[in-house]
Structures are given as C-alpha cells and as structure tokens.
C-alpha cells in the first residue's frame, strides 16, 4: 500500500540518500536497519514530511503524494513515533495526544471528545492509569513514551513509522510494545520499524531493508536470513567478537568507589563497591533508579543519606564540579543535551571539563590530539569542526575524550552505546575495557542486557530505587530480569 | 531526551486532587490577582492613615481608565509572547494608529466606520509584516520588530509634525463615557480579553499557539503549522494595538505622534505580560494573568499619586516590583517542576 | 563505519565549518561594513583623511565599547538592556561627583564609575542566574531603577560640570593625533578577544550553547555568566566616560543606546540565545551602525526618514545572516545537518528570554 | 485548568458588573457638544494640530508676536513674571472665594527635562511664598497624554479650588480641559489647548519671536552668502516647529544660505557629530541657528575640536551656554523661553480666587539675552543645565533647591 521509489536527498550539497526504494504491505512490519548516517532516519523523515525529498516519488494506495510539512503526511495517514519524545511538558496528556488535529465541534475544540478519545486510546495501550488532564511533565518517561504512541494512533494512521521506539524503554516495556505492534498489524496497519536491535527486528518483522551510506544494500525476508547476514550487510564486514575479554579476577585492585546506605528522593539503601580495573554493570527497568544512581554519585542529584568514599577518602559531592574535582566522570545517557555543546568545536568540547574545573590535562592542542587518538576518533574533519556535524558514534567518542582529559578515577557510563552504530559500539566497548585495565573503576549502566552481560565483571540490579541483588560475571538475562521485576508492578506503574 | 532523566513513580490516578491543588498554587494568574487585591488594600490602608480616601469614585474610575490602553496592548503582547515571539513595534504602531484614526475621521461621525476599518487594516498589515519577517526571513523577533519599529518611527516623523486630525464627538464618548464608576472603555478591554481568552482556550489556533511557544520543533512534528501560527499571533497582537489606538484617539480627540512612545508601551506591555505570569519563553500563561499584571501597575500608580511619590522614584519602585514578581514566579516554577 | 562516514564529514567541513571558522558568522557584517565605507568614500572624498577618519572612529567608540560588553552577555545566552541607563547614570553621576568634590582627580572618578558599572552588572548577573529571572526582565527593571534613581538623586538634571581633564579621554588625542577613545576601544576589544580565548571565554561560550551540558561538565554556569554581566556593566560605565568626555554633561546621554548595542551585536552575526559569534563581529557591527548613521547624514537623508532606512537595513542584514550563516535556533525546522545532529537544533528557548529557563 | 476557572470567574463577575452598570445612572464625562473653538484665544504656540508643516505658520500670529516682542510690558519693574503684554482684562468675580485658605491643584505634563525641572521647582517655591495656599496637589503625567487626561479628571473631581494645567500636548488635552472647565476654574500655561474655556492662558510671547530673534541676529552678524547650519531637536513638536518656521522666513529674505537642517534629539553627542560632519562637508559653517539650547555647547566644542573659530551662534539661557559664551567670548545670542512663567499661574490663581481681574490671555515678556545683558543671567554657582531666566533668585531656597551651591 506504501511505495517509496528512488528517494534522493542532499544536505548542504552532500547526498545522504541515493535513490532508495522501499515498499510496505498492509499488516506488514518492515524493519529498516543501518548504521548511523546510513540514511534510515532521513528516509523516514521524507515519509513523515519533516524533510522534502530532492527526488523520487511516494505512493500511498497507488496515488502519488508529496509532503512538505508533517501535517500533510498525517493527513495522508502516515504517523511517526519519534526517537526523541516530541511532547509538550506543560500541556495535558489529551492536548498532547491531539496536538495538531484537535477534534472540533462547530469550529471549536471539543475538549470533552478529546478527553474521551484519549481515555479510549490509553485503554487500548493498557495504560488506564494515565489521566487525560494531567500535564505531561508530571508523567514518568515510560508513560510519556506511551502518550507518544497514543499520539501516533490518534490520527487513524495506515502507515506507522517507529524510529527506535525501544530506545527509552526497559525490557518488559518492550514486551508491551511488541504486542501493541502485533495488534496494530492485525488491524491492517503497515509498520516501518527502524532499530539497531537485531533481537527486536527478528522478533517482529517480516522483511528487513538494509541501508548503508545512503544506498539500499538489500531487502531480505527475515524468515530466510539471520543476524550475522544482516550485520554483515550493514557493516560490510564480520564482527566476530562483540565484547572484549573481561579482566582476570586477580587483576582487580582495591576498592575505589564505595557507597553505603546511599539514598535521596529517588534512591534508598544503595550499597556498592567498585574496585580498580573493575566494570560494575547496573541493570534495572526504566525508572528503577539506574540513571539516578549515576547522577547521585556524580553530584547532579546528590545523595542526601549515606556515605560515599573515593579511594578511601569520604566524599559527598553536592554538584558535578565537586565530583569532577574528586575524580568522578559521567558519560551521560543524553549525549546531545547533556554531553556536548553542539555548536562548539571538537577541541573546545574535549577541553571543556579541564578548562571549567582546572583539573587533569593542560588545555592545549597536543593534549587534544592525544585524547582524540586515544578514543580512536577517526575520519573527523579535524579538531576544529563543530561536533554537531559528527556521527553519533564520533560524538560519543568526543564525550569520552572530554572526560579522559580530567584524568578521572571513576568513570560512570550511562547508556554509552545508545543510538550508536555497530562499528562505533564495538570501539566503545573495547575502550571501556582498556580504561578499566588501566585501573579506572567503571560503572556501566545499560538497558541492553547483552551489552551489560558481555561487559560487566559484576552486575548490580536495581528495582524501585533500591538494590534488588547482585550477580557475578556472566549472568543470564533471565536472572537479571527476575531481580529487576521483583518490584516491577510498582515500577511498571511508573 | 530531557524527559529521559528518571522521575519518581507518580501514578496520576493516585491523589490527582493533590496534584491539581499544587498546580493551582503554582499558577501565577491566581497570585497576581491576589497581589492586585493586596496592593489595593495596602493603598487603601496607607491613604486612610494619611487621612485621605482611596476608593473614591474618581480614583476607581481613574485606575480602571488607566488600565485600558496598556491593557489592550499587553493583551496583544500576550499573544505573541505565548507563541514564543515578541513585539517591540507596538508603541510606534499605537501612535500611527491614533493619527490615522483621527485624520480619517476628520471630525465627522460619517467617517467613523471608515476610520476604524482603516486603523485595523493598517495594524493587521504591520502585524503581518512582523510575522513574515520573523518566520520567513528568520530574523529573530527582537530585531525584526525593533526594525519595524524604526521604520514606523521614520514614517511618523516624516509625515506628522505634532497632533493631527480631529476625532468626531460621538466617537470621543468611547474615551469619556462611564456607567457608574466604570468607564465604557473598560468593557472594551474586558471584551477583547474574553475574546482572546476564548481563542486560547477553545480554538485550535489557541492550542497551537501554546504548542508553538512551548516547543516549536515538537509542535511542528505534531503537524502544527507553526509559522502560520506565529504570523497569526503577530496579526492578533497588532489588531489589539489598533483597538488601543482607537481608544487613545477617542480619548485625545486627535491623533498624537508620541502617544505610544512617551508611554513606553513597548517595554511596559512586556513588563505587564511577564508580571502577569506569562513565561517570556512562551508556552505558559494567558490573558487572565496579563489583566492582573496591568491592574497591579495601575493601582500602584494610583497609590503613588495619592502619596505624591516623586515621579523618578516611581520608576525605581516599578523596576523593583517587576523583578521581584518574576523572581517569585521563577521560584514557584522551579519547585513545581522539581521532578523533571 | 568511521571510515565510511568520514568522507561526507570532511566534505561538510570544507563547505560549512571551515568557512564559519575563518570569518564565521561575522562575514555578512564585514561585507556590509565594506559596502558602507565604500559608499562613504564615494559620498565624501575627504572622509578618509586620517584625522577625519579617526574623528569618526572616536565618535563610534562608545557604541563599540557597549557592543563589546553586550557581546559577552549575549553569547552567554542573555541580554543586557540596562547599558543605556548605565551610560546616562554614569555621565550624570560624574557631574554630580564633581559638583560635590570639585577637585577630584579624573582617574579616581573614572575608576569609581567603572566600579559602579561593574556593581550594576553584578546585581544583574546575580538576580538573573541566582533567582532565575529572565535577563530581559532583570535588566529592564534595572534600567527603570537606574534612570529613576539617578534623577531622583540629582533632582532631575546633572548639577555639575565635567572638568576638561576628565573629558580628555573622550575628547583629546594621544600624541596629538590618536584619539584616546580609539586607544581605549582597541584595548577593550583586544581584551575581550583574548578573554574569549581563555578558559573562561570558552566555558562562557559553552554555557551559552548548552547550559545543561556545561553544568554537567563542571562549569559554574552562574558564576561564568555573572562575570559576563559584570564586564558588560563595566564596559558601559567606560562608555559613559567617553560619552561624557566627548560631548559634556547631558541628561539623556545614553538614551536608546541599549537597543543600538544589541542591534550592533546581532548585526555582527552573534546568535541571540548564545553559543556563537565573535567579538570582532560584534564590534564590526557597531562600527557598521555608526558608519550607517554618518552616511545617512552626509547623504542628507531627511532626518525624519533616517530611522526608516536604518530599520530596513538592519532587518535586511540580519535576514541575510540568518539565511546564510548562523541559523537562528528557533523558527528553524529540523536543520539541514545530517540526522545524527538533527535534534541538536531544537532551540530550547526563545533567545529574548535570556537563555534557558528552569 | 486554572486559566479556565479563572476565566469563568471573570466572565461571571463581568456579567454582574454589566448588570450593575445598566441599573446605575449612565453618566458621561465627555465635554459639551459643539466643535472646539479653534480661534478665540487659540494659544500662540498651538499648531492647530495639523499635519502639514505650512499649517504651523500663521501669518497674523507671526506678525503679532514680532510686534509684541518689541513692546514694553505693563506691570512691576524687574518682576517679569508679573508683567503682561496687551492685557485684555476679564472679570473673575464669579470665581471669588471668601475662604482665606485655598487648595490649588496642578496637573503637570511631566518633569522629563531640565527646563521643566527648574520650572516646577520655581513654581513650588512661589507657592511656598503664599501662606494662604493651604494645599498644593501636583499630579505628574510622566509625559503620557492618556495619564494627564485621567489626572485632570481626577483633580477636577477632588476638592480643588482651582486647577492649573501645563498640557503635555496641545490638541489631545483639549477635551479633558473643557470637561474640567465645567466644574472649576482652570488656568493653562506653557502650551495651550484648543479652547477658550480656561480663565486665562499664561505664556510668553511665543515661538515665532524666539525663532525670529535668533535668526535676525545671525542675519546681522554673518557675512552675506554665509552658510547657516540649523540644529533642531526633533521633528513634530509644534512649539519647535513655530520657532523654525519663523527662522526659515527670516533666512529666506536674507543673503544667507541654509546649508543643513538636522535633528539632534537633544543629544549633545549627536549634535557634536552633526556639526563636525557639516563642517567637513561644507568646508566652513558661518552661523549656527538652534531651536533650543540643550546642545549649544556641544556645537561650540565641535568647532573648537575642529580647530576653527566659533561662528555666530544662537543658544538658550542655560548656564553652560552662557558660561561658554562668557569664557570664549563668542558672538552669540540667547533668546529665552523663560522658566519664570511657572510663577505666574500661581499668582494668577490667587488673583482669580480673590475675584481680581486677570488678562484673558496673560502674555509674558520673553527676554532675549544679549552680549550686554548676559552677565546678569550668568550665575557661576548654578548647575550647567539651570535656566538663567528662572526669575527665582528672590525665592526662598535659592540657590540650593535649584541644585546650586
């Protein structure tokens, strides 16, 4: 029912899509994969009307369409669930769900109808808990994601684009999303499913289209192929060893970071120890306090209870500055909003911490060169270019370089490989290991269990902001999930 | 994602009343009206102590009367600010409006309608220009409207040398009639306020204005025609200025080239809007707050008059009041948005 | 992948960043400036005789200073509307000081003024960063307070004369040919230029670009920004010394200068909302603005029409800049940067709010 | 949410008000019907509120002022603020008050420039002179026509015995003044209004005389063919337009050439730049005409800094100019728009309330300061922006209250 043919698009004279074609049948889930910069998102944005194509044509049910504004795409029955939530925190759930297509009676917005329909939609999504007149800012992330989905469904779409829909979701929420997808396809919707996560793709899709450098590589029937084949098509090379070897138990040094009885308005009874050379994985559902833990240690939302020691000395950082001085670094989960100043050069971003806090490396060209070398920032246009022009992977490498400049003792990684392509992902994993091997204490938060399992020397599982248990190296996903969901009904409600 | 920073479980189903209550308290529109009431009582007390009487008919009339012009313009300003824009051209536009009105009327009631239409048309035009410069030429609203202000200024100074035109007698009644202690022009103000309040609450345009002001990118992705919304907001604003100009003309009986600028309507209107609790960034606030802000300023002014406060010192006090008020809102918002 | 995406990046660098790095966002203003200067040459052959040109620069000096100060505030994501009032206050206050202490040494008075200006900036900064009041409002209020305050103090008009030795800086020449004002400007300009290359400057720029990122990188954003306000206040006070020196006592020395300064800075390609722009651009903008006034004057454009022409040119210039170079953060849909960067340009707040809101 | 409920409340209360309003007697503060009287004692400086420049020139008013400027006023010697030219006395018997204590009210346009500052100070000092004035209420409109209208309405409804008005704008305040006239005696000064309802209108001879005096001086003192630079504050101010139109006329029938007419916004910095440019463009400037003194010194300095002889120049009675004039002994003249006129309304008010007759239009003399008379007005102890023609030397509190030492 959907046909995109020979779609081409250039930005600043650089062609990012070379006549890519793709089609979608009713009730089908069609996965679109590719590394960052492969052109997936651009292709989707052409379809959702966010960008206008330079060439090619789009047909829906055989009738050619042309969008130069999202409104037109919606009118034509194309809905999109964005990677970044596009919600207005100050407006109510209902107002958000119907934003841009408010139901009207006699020209006036029909608030009653809005509320009613919203309730229905949320019911469909098994999210009765959400009141239509709550301002979105008062909802948890998971619930905001749900609202985003409801928003996409509100317009009765026939083609639904899901761009990394699970990026912000925890495993069990992913499950909910999956059966939502199935129910939608039963209704005859066609779904374009963009994702990095092979498991999801193979669980859901009938076909998978692989893009590389803005070109269509291949379109495979999911049933007739396997992960390696797809990855090979994506990367153009085998990625044999996903995860570097762990540290030998003997290689671990003494405790560097310890927290005992740590707590604040989101955490309670946190007990943890990270030793030099160790990678401590932290698992948990969305809202279980994983990121809160990192932010607490980093002094962004500090502990209000308990004590924390760094290399034996007691520390209680009340803001990031103090944490950094003490030798703690946080590679945050939101690169673009929290990790980088996007209009500034790679150089300035790399030196930001050193300059701001006056610790670690001297601010200078040689330092920058060495650090970028260290994080294997490849194929950049030099240290002078603005980071916003870098690919997700390279941006993440700059963030890490920035922290290495501060010569930290403890490195906190929160979702270090989110939205990063397979190649860069491997590079980052290797880097993390090397850093640990150099004697840093590493705390690794990830909602991607394979990564967590592959990287961690121990795994601390959180639920409801408290430790739910600790697992030795190489636990199974089931073990983790069991602990993580121990308080899940409440966490789930969040 | 900003939203991705984990937030505590807060099932909206549980204790929504509490949530609403908290929201209620953190809403400036309520606060500013309480403030207005407070200032009035204070003024009444202070003046009473000094053996005067504050709430006399002349005073009340005066206060209400002083609300109208600034009120109308501030209402317009509210529209653009909510949408995330800004209009610095209102002062000169008001001046030009009075001149056009007075000259078109030329003293005869016959031309009244023509004049009204002319003024509103002119303003709509200027508003449209503002909107298009901001959206199409992508000039920052601050600079865009500042530039338009300069253009208008040049036009006025080049074509007018002092008061001009003659407003017909029956039209002047708009500026002078009153029902009991309430000037009719106040009903005009309230009328416009109701209309705009209705637009914001009950029309798609209104919803889209809040959305555009709140997060233009998100709004656009949701299919809102953000640029169109901004343009319309500017036109609405300019129309309000037009109405204000008509009122001023009625009051002056003639057009005055410095009607808008001497009163510093550009900055004062913005101050009033923000005093009314509308977020300067857009996306939050509304006409109710703005009216409150205007009222507070008018009452304060009347109190200062009663106490014969040195006009220079008045400015100092005004400055302090505005900063203080906004500081309070900022505080409220922070504590309200703690769990973000 | 890195190898594969490398090529487009480098290409992009050549087209986009390399350019912007060279002259950057200041490119349009430099073009405009050259245009105006050329027009001036055509209009008035003698304009470039050294002494006349220097006299012209001397005249531009105060605005250049204000622009330099304003630049620091704007690039950090804020506004300073109080500079005009600071200039007025400065001149009137100086007169008042000399009225009370006729013998005061000019240097002392100058230092006192600059300190006072810095103090005003400090208050602006603390209220804005500490209490979370949008700088537009803070400095607007400060403007009212200063204007009201100084005239309340002096009873409506300056009460003293400015002695010649105080006025020398704004009026006399060094070595008989180089106006002191020019020296001051050059010094301040160089100072700011150097500051922006210092750690403080880079962190200031980072703060203006993304407050959250800066905060989480250990930048004391509040402190950094407050310093910017302080410097802006000090620069304004210094400008007051020049203005007072140039043209003597006046009750409205600085009226409207705040808008001229902001216009100049934006004209210079500095992004309202922060994070981008160079001080040279800002000062070039101020220079261009003064050149424009002079040109209109020499051209004998009806005094009344001058504002109109000015308005048109400002809008046009900024529109041009917006179109080609520093794309304003709001008003712009998803930017033509590749998808990875797309969400970056989601302008958090409207520039004129004075930076991010809590 | 909140806005919603608040809105409801608003709507409700509005409805109530409306209802109440309809019940309440519908009253109007609008001035009586019938077009305003444009002629009559239409004040000399009144532009008639017309857009067209030509409208600012009224031939007979022009002639009248030139004549008046030459006449010697009636009234006490040395007290110009009590003198009057061609008085046509009107009877004020019906306003007579037998109370020995009076309450005067004053609606002031504002104190937004030094001239008005000096004036107000002078007026308050004058009031202090008369102990029979029990109360003196001043409302300051801060230059806002709208506010001054409200002020006038407010005052005319208080227990004032007499209302003094210094209008911010001529035409726009006419309705309000007419309204006030119905309830109490009104005295207007400085600027006029388009109505003859006030008991008297106090003002100096006027703008034509001012402009002409300065222009004639230049015509006499500048070599024929000389280039004149005219510096004006800003376009569109009726008072100033009159001064210029008179000067324009004078220059037209002279040998002089008006090289440039520029606006300074009253900002010395701008003035200085303009003069500098003009000197450069025209090689030389042989005379400078100004419609007000605010920027005179800046102009003088422009010539100095250019290393040139300061040509004949016209200024005003501000101390800094008189000082510069004396120090550099310039060829200069300073026509004045005397601030002593702020004393007269108070005097007139008391006369009116005593039932004594006053001139229907109280035209004050308008001294022109020349080489000879300069030193009488030059007071070293006074601040630079003080006006020499304040006639305040004999008042209590002089010189301190005027900022002097």
TrEMBL record, chain A:
It is a peripheral membrane protein. Signal peptide: none annotated. GO terms for molecular function: ATP binding; ATP hydrolysis activity. Keywords: ATP-binding, Cell membrane, Membrane, Nucleotide-binding, Repeat, Sugar transport, Translocase, Transport. One of its GO terms (cellular component) is plasma membrane. InterPro entries: AAA+_ATPase, ABC_carbohydrate_import_ATPase, ABC_transporter-like_ATP-bd, ABC_transporter-like_CS, P-loop_NTPase. It is found in: Cell membrane. The keyword Membrane applies. SUPFAM superfamilies: P-loop containing nucleoside triphosphate hydrolases. Residues 2-238, 252-489 form the ABC transporter domain. The keyword Translocase applies. PANTHER family: CARBOHYDRATE TRANSPORT ATP-BINDING PROTEIN MG119-RELATED, D-ALLOSE IMPORT ATP-BINDING PROTEIN ALSA-RELATED. This is Sugar ABC transporter ATP-binding protein. The lineage of its organism: Bacteria, Bacillati, Actinomycetota, Actinomycetes, Kitasatosporales.
TrEMBL record, chain B:
It holds the Pfam family BPD_transp_2. It is a multi-pass membrane protein. Its main location: membrane. GO terms for cellular component: plasma membrane. It is found in: Cell membrane. The chain crosses the membrane at residues 30-49, 70-92, 112-132, 139-156, 179-200, 230-250, 312-330. Keywords: Cell inner membrane, Cell membrane, Membrane, Transmembrane, Transmembrane helix, Transport. One of its GO terms (molecular function) is transmembrane transporter activity. PANTHER family: ABC TRANSPORTER PERMEASE PROTEIN YPHD-RELATED-RELATED, AUTOINDUCER 2 IMPORT SYSTEM PERMEASE PROTEIN LSRD. This is Autoinducer 2 import system permease protein LsrD. It comes from Streptomyces sedi.
TrEMBL record, chain C:
CDD domains: TM_PBP1_transp_AraH_like (cd06579). Residues 326-358 are annotated as: Disordered. GO terms for molecular function: transmembrane transporter activity. The chain crosses the membrane at residues 22-41, 53-74, 81-98, 104-123, 135-154, 174-195, 227-247, 253-272, 279-296, 308-325. It comes from the Bacteria. InterPro entries: ABC_transp_permease. Residues 333-342 have a biased composition (Pro residues). Residues 343-358 have a biased composition (Low complexity). Its main location: membrane. GO terms for cellular component: plasma membrane. Keywords: Cell membrane, Membrane, Transmembrane, Transmembrane helix. It is found in: Cell membrane. It is a multi-pass membrane protein. PANTHER family: ABC TRANSPORTER PERMEASE PROTEIN YPHD-RELATED-RELATED (PTHR32196). This is ABC transporter permease.
Automatic annotation (TrEMBL), chain D:
Residues 107-357 form the Periplasmic binding protein domain. Belongs to the bacterial solute-binding protein 2 family. Gene3D superfamilies: 3.40.50.2300. GO terms for cellular component: cell envelope. The keyword Transcription regulation does not apply. Pfam families: Peripla_BP_4. Residues 47-59 have a biased composition (Acidic residues). It comes from Streptomyces sedi. The keyword Signal applies. This is ABC transporter substrate-binding protein. Keywords: Signal. One of its GO terms (molecular function) is carbohydrate binding. Residues 1-30 form the signal peptide. PROSITE patterns: PROKAR_LIPOPROTEIN. It is found in: Cell envelope. It comes from the Bacteria. Residues 25-59 are annotated as: Disordered. Its main location: other.
